[in-house]
Design a protein that fits this description.
4 copies of one chain form a homotetramer.
Chain A: E1 4-5, E2 10-15, E3 21-27, H1 37-47, E4 64-68, E5 70-71, E6 74-75, E7 80-85, H2 95-99, H3 107-113, H4 131-147, E8 151-159, E9 162-163, H5 174-181, H6 190-205, E10 212-219, H7 233-241, E11 247-252, H8 263-266, E12 270-273, E13 276-279, E14 287-288, E15 291-292, E16 297-303, E17 313-316, E18 323-326, H9 337-358
Antiparallel strand pairs in A: 1-2, 2-3, 3-7, 4-7, 5-6, 8-9, 8-10, 10-16, 11-16, 12-13, 14-15, 17-18
Helix pairs in contact in A: 1-4, 1-9, 4-9, 7-9
């Protein structure tokens, strides 16, 4: 199994949900970046479980410990390694899970691929808990990107059938992104947020779960990140996003709706705005020919419902091949969407930094 | 600019629309694969322009020439290199395009990223013509995959607002895939196909264009391809798909619709079917935890409308910074969807072969 | 700074000499490998400091802790992460080292490349202590390779001007390799070993140091590992070996001496030996055309003297640019050769496993 | 089989000795580099066969044709692809070679690895002719490096037992490198060169061959290229060099001789020279801790004798397993050293450019 992502920056995650720790090693970071550790912890806190009644009651401090690459408050240029120890792991018998794959989970495919040797406790290496490493790397990336003026923020677009209004990416401000980042449940219209939360609570009570869509916006993006084949900005960001557990769809700009339009509607006309080259609309989500065009980055990410539900489901014992029913007990999120928001932001931040590090700053001297 | 895709198989494309050629080098192919060159040419013919009134009238034979890696009818194990010479390149003055970026095209971002040195003639390296190399690689991959019983076929799901019925991936047969592959305009219901073709013709007459959605299905997929972080099957296939020009969305199984469901609806229950482990539904599109589960692969790909349209659009001269209007003349597809079908199939085939080559065939001896 | 090596297996090391730990993450290991943890610790003990009067008196237990990828005594297929905490780090003031680069050390180049932000304490990330991660990975690799019958062992060929006899790789047995592996100072002729040890002791007393050459042999190597361009077996192994601190030369088979021969002398004639295809001599060191030929692997590795010496040397203060003299105090090896023996073996083991994992076991089914 | 080298720059070669062509694709080259095509051809001419009586009488123009990535005299940023067609391929029956592996050649290992499907004619993909692609890439790299003031040149250090004087890298000038580059047989002392040439001629008459050592020097090297683990400058350059056919040893600075010294002798003391940080000696060959220190790069490369000799040798028919004798007829170099000189230079140039492209030009703005 691989665990490494990136062309210039390398992000490699390791760990298991119920093992010693989850962690990440980030290599090719520049030396001399002063890290704000509290801001990093704040990002991890956005993702950590147990913050509200909507979430799994598993409580984890998610306190990180830097193991290398950091000295006297600055990055050293050497690999930045971090671990978060697992403290709240229940020592129950997970033997059932090993033989009784949960529908919608990786249990069956992991069993087959790793021949029964995988750590099946709580999802093991497949756990959403592994995304803590992505959030850490994203928090570091955000601190670097902010020096270039780049802002990233994500909003909940829908939970189940409850959809919020979709606002034009051209009117999203940095202040709006900041408001989303500091909200535990970022939405456009508070009443829609309330309806979404109620739906999640209903699902929780019903031992069920629900999916949703997160939209992420990036502002002040440099022109020129990405390439036509095969490292388009869409390709690189989708590559990262589709490794977040439960993600089943990724779309840029108008996304699937752009397929319904004609060219005259879909094309974004160019114009000059105070000396800046801009487009009048941003249907392309800030990317043309695989390359950022300086307009807001705009991506939608669809998550399936949390597969762990308490209702009865059909499965098959992988060893006896007998058909069985299971009801999953334990501490689960009825909806992963609120906790996934910082993970999606992190994916965009990491992708941007990876591509930025591959750009030459100035080749006028060639 | 990079041009290489793949972890085990490496596919690297090169060339320009109006330069000497387009081509591809495929490395890490096994030695001893007998290639059916006619079948490869047939795949290229599915993509080539000028086959019908719906398509650009630019005629190209798209006859390929193998330059290395092939000897006595078999692959040698050395890099398989192929070129297709450009024969029908009009020698008109492309100077306008260089300075007047076409809305929706890569002209502006390419100009900025490559500082005006890119080959702007006909889209240059950004041209959809580069996908001929992807189709070639996909055709080679399909021949290898077919020995394992794997079938791949794609169908047009919608063109503009005309949507065909979405059939359950569980009832798609190999014969159905074959029928799609041999159709110039594969759809589920012929009357829907007729409506789509009429829409494209209307757009062509109106100097406009239209987008659409292609769905690709894979059958007889081995269990175990892909990994959780960061090389999930979704990640790898989306990485390739998002480099196809005009692709703006990729979704697996139910795609964005899965976000509207609850967990009980979305989870695919397991059952035994004649000794085989299966799921009763295939909402996950054949992938759990990033790993193929043996059920049909099912992916949707959204294409934006062809950006080249004859109607007037607003742009800005990149050198003088004056705002201008342009109407793009020339030979363009009013809808790229029919020609993109084999490209999407090729992306799935290449992704499958890449991951298969990384699997150990048998580790019982460890 | 990158930290990842490997095409199939990925080995990534992190840590610093005087930070929290040194560690390694190994990805793409097969699942289901039973690890003998005591044997791994024994390999680490061969490298650890403070075992004899010849070595640095810094004592470290070098006790490793597995952080992920290991469950119920077997590898899980997930990334195998390991850390060794630094316990015996002296808290002296290292400020001098930062400004006064030690001749022969990385201090100056690290200062320039990382702009003074590197962790300079005890060499930081440049320390030979980082090779503990390589030895760990090598120990894991050796356990897998041993199941295929592959044996690896290294011998000290020379220390300073004291050279041992060079024995023909064709007469080296597995028992010989085992004897070398279990010796703290493996040589061919004990009296040569005694002379080498005396030389090291003399150097130590004189506050000086000395270099040497290690030769590593691999037996029962499968035919077919490596490729002509650019991943020849020589390329891959040299790539790893030249990252071991102090290595300045790598040569295969007869090495530099082969350049003095004519073709008739140098070529290894083929013959049949009990049904096996062999060569009468092994001047090529087991590699033809970049590919292993099944004969013993044979590589020589030249190490420069430990740059840390107590004698006065000339340097320049990197901040004031004043010329200065320094004498390096502290705990240093007068000769790194004995402790480098298991590191060289590890490099060969890792390289072999990396290439083996890229081989298909059986493609007769294509 | 892979064919790609590089972390930032990607060089991928393809082709066969007796197929359609040999070629190379270079990706990640900056856009806007004006190429001097005549200078590139001149580099290829240094390597091409048939220039003198010492070399194989096979005559090839080695005229290159750029297929993509070049427009209006400048690189476009898109992949730069080049082919050299094979014009002088003798159509003799190569069936013998397939079954009768030539000692010292890749015939046996290629047969085993590629199961008899490799193109065995004239060495196929294993042929030294493939290095034309490396020379092309090196010539492009040299043109870019020259804008930074970097000079590279190589000299023949020995042929067989005839060794030239080894001059101190500190006194080598750019003019000296230029003189070496423009000589068909670069040496320090002309009389040594005459003796080497006589030895080669003697070997040719005797149907034998001979090896040798090439030394390559680089001047005006930026400080800071390379990293400790695992991409040390030594690692990267050795990785490339060991893929050149017949290379069996690579060593930096004093090379294997440094292992004979004590630390006081080996360490290069620092001093200030007109405001520049320098070392009084250059035993390290311009590299400390895997990172260039600004002093001259200095590498030695040992080549084994050309394995193709007319004298009788022992082999085994790979299909019948009968022992046989063979005498290789045909057009071969009695010594590859003179033609390998530009290949070694190219390897250094490519390695330097690859690492330079990974460096940020200015991170003061972070």
């Amino acid at each position: 199994m691989s665990n490494i992502w990136g062309m210039n920056l390398k992000v490699s995650i390791f760990g298991e949900s119920h093992g010693e720790c989850v962690g990440v090693v980030i290599s090719n970071l520049p030396a001399g970046i002063r890290l704000d550790l509290e801001a990093i912890q704040a990002e991890l806190n956005r993702r950590k479980p147990g913050k509200s009644a909507l979430e799994t009651p598993r409580k984890e401090d998610d306190a990180f410990k830097i193991m290398s690459g950091y000295f006297n408050e600055y990055t050293t240029g050497a690999p930045l390694a971090m671990i978060i120890e697992n403290t709240n792991t229940k020592s129950k018998d997970y033997g059932d899970i090993k033989q009784m794959p949960r529908p919608g989970h990786a249990d069956y495919t992991a069993y087959m691929k790793y021949k029964g040797f995988h750590d099946y406790r709580g999802g093991g290496h497949f756990s959403g808990r592994l995304t803590a490493g992505i959030v850490f790397a994203g928090a570091v990336a955000k601190q670097i990107l902010s020096k270039l003026g780049i802002s990233i923020g994500a909003v909940i677009e829908s939970v189940g059938m409850v959809a919020d209004e979709r606002i034009d990416s051209l009117i999203v401000t940095e202040a709006q992104l900041e408001a989303w980042r500091t909200s535990a449940f970022p939405v456009v219209h508070p009443e829609k947020g309330a309806a979404m939360r109620q739906l999640i609570e209903d699902m929780r009570v019903d031992h069920n779960s629900v999916g949703g869509v997160i939209r992420c916006i990036g502002l002040n993006i440099p022109v020129g990140l990405g390439e036509p084949f095969f490292d388009s900005f869409e390709s690189r960001l989708a590559y990262m996003l589709f490794s977040i557990p439960a993600v089943k769809g990724v779309a840029f700009g108008l996304g699937f709706d752009v397929a319904k339009l004609d060219g005259k509607q879909a094309n974004d006309d160019f114009y000059m705005d105070g000396g800046l080259f801009k487009t009048k609309t941003n249907n392309a989500g800030g990317i043309l020919g695989g390359i950022t065009n300086g307009m807001p980055l705009d991506v939608q990410v669809a998550f399936k419902p949390t597969p762990s539900i308490g209702q009865e489901q059909q499965t098959v014992n992988v060893e006896t091949l007998e058909e069985k029913t299971i009801a999953i007990e334990g501490r689960h999120d009825a909806c992963i969407i609120p906790r996934a928001v910082p993970v999606v932001e992190a994916a965009m931040a990491i992708t941007l930094l990876d591509l930025l590090l591959g750009e030459e700053k100035d080749v006028s001297w060639w």
